[in-house]
Write a structure and sequence with these properties.
The protein contains 10 helices and 11 strands. It is α/β, with parallel strands linked by helices. Helix 6 packs across helix 10.
């Protein structure tokens, strides 16, 4: 395997790298819920995906797998069960990130209409080892630091290695022109943070964050972000989402890949907590 530093806006390099490629995994993208990064999100996620699709078509790539997000399935409602059939509603109060991923999916469907074999995956919150100052890895840091607060919402979680295995299985199959939610289990945030804290040998969170308190925090973060020119730790959209109880249905994936089984969430959390501890003590 050889690594090449690239850019989804370098169309010449994309086509050079895809020459003689049979399968391409498009995993590049930007994640941010900062309202100020709307244009950057659209450029990276939508235009970057369009460039990948065009390069794949020009190079006669046999199959493309696009990593999307459940955010592309539209704005969620309380106690909602979400499937791949969820329709995007432009009138809803969708996040800029969700809209950018939805528009990226449209580029993939455009490529399919032009003759490209492709499949789309929509993971829920991915748990894995990485820089725990960023993205979902920050959940492990909060648990390790004994952050006392927890949101009362429910959402889907999945092991990073399971996401990779699903992607490989889909690419090795004849499945095309489909999208799949990748989610192992629906759990409360409190359950997940408690499991992480226990695996670290730390005190679990014990103070619920009610909607009023959350609204104060995101407003404070917005002011602080404006003064310091930094990304807010919490935004209006993430504060509201964390209070929702949303259940993601993975039955379509199980139907298409009946031999696949997800790793139990407790096992995932223990495994990654031990890896983080090893990094801290190493």
């Amino acid at each position: 395997m050889s690594w090449v530093k690239g850019d989804v806006f370098d169309t010449g390099l994309l086509e050079e790298m895809m020459q003689d490629c049979k399968k391409v995994y498009h995993c590049a993208g930007m994640v941010s819920f900062n309202p100020k990064k709307r244009n950057e999100l659209l450029k990276v996620n939508k235009e970057g995906t369009a460039n990948m699709v065009n390069a794949a078509l020009n190079c006669n790539v046999k199959k493309l797998l696009h990593v999307s997000s459940v955010s592309a399935l539209g704005r969620k409602r309380h106690n909602m069960v979400v499937t791949e059939e969820a329709k995007w509603d432009e009138e809803s109060n969708n996040s800029n990130y969700g809209r950018s991923k939805f528009l990226a999916e449209l580029e993939v469907w455009r490529g399919i209409s032009e003759g490209l074999d492709a499949v789309i995956v929509n993971p829920t919150i991915i748990l894995g080892v990485g820089d725990w100052n960023n993205s979902s890895a920050a959940m492990f840091k909060n648990a390790y630091k004994e952050f006392p607060w927890y949101a009362e919402g429910v959402t889907g979680f999945v092991d990073a290695e399971d996401v990779a295995r699903v992607m490989i299985d889909l690419m090795e199959s004849n499945i095309t022109e489909e999208r799949f939610i990748i989610s192992a289990e629906n759990r409360t945030f409190r359950e997940v943070f408690t499991a992480m804290a226990n695996a670290f040998g730390k005190k679990p969170p014990h103070r619920p964050v009610n909607p009023f308190f959350a609204s104060l925090v995101w407003r404070f973060e917005k002011i602080k972000n404006t003064i310091a020119s930094t990304d807010p730790l919490l935004t209006k959209e993430t504060a509201e989402t964390a209070q929702l109880k949303v259940f993601f249905d993975n039955s379509k994936l199980k139907k298409y890949l009946p031999a696949f089984s997800f790793r139990p969430l407790e096992e995932t959390i223990k495994n990654y907590c031990h890896q983080y501890l090893a990094k801290l003590n190493g």
